[in-house]
Amino acid sequence: MNLTIIVPAFNEADYLPATVNAIQVAAEHLHTHSDAEVEVVVVDNNSTDDTAAIARTAGAAVVHEPVQGIAPLEMASAIRYRTRSSRFWAEYGMRNVRDQRRVSATRLETPSPGFTLHGARCGADLWTGATLHVGMENIGDKYYYEHLNSLNPFTGQRVPEMGRTLTLGFSTVW
Q: Is the pTM for the entire model greater than 0.85?
């Protein structure tokens, strides 16, 4: 198993060594208990300090991203319940996005509020490798927009995301 951990960074020279070190310690622990190979990639978002050089010195690969579009901190989590037969399952998921105050005025970015979305899904494994599932995302019909969404050219306001969304899907492994 290969695992790549991506660390977005903008002027993080003061904090990056400890961050990369903590990831490497966890990676060593993971490698000791499994066959996992871990790669650390720091995405330097056009930093004006020594972020890229410090990341390389710490042993991380560095990708330079010259366009500053700093996305806010985001966390997605889910919990799944399977029946004893393991054929049917139900899942609750949550997506938390913090507000974004670090913006690029030169790119006409403005601060954006955070949001939390809830979703529920259930499904059945029809046969080996085939699943039928149905779900609802944004159960609370929350009005929100992503931080880097485009602006409406007529109003200058951000275009909001869809409200409550129903999904029906079939997936299979070929």
A: no
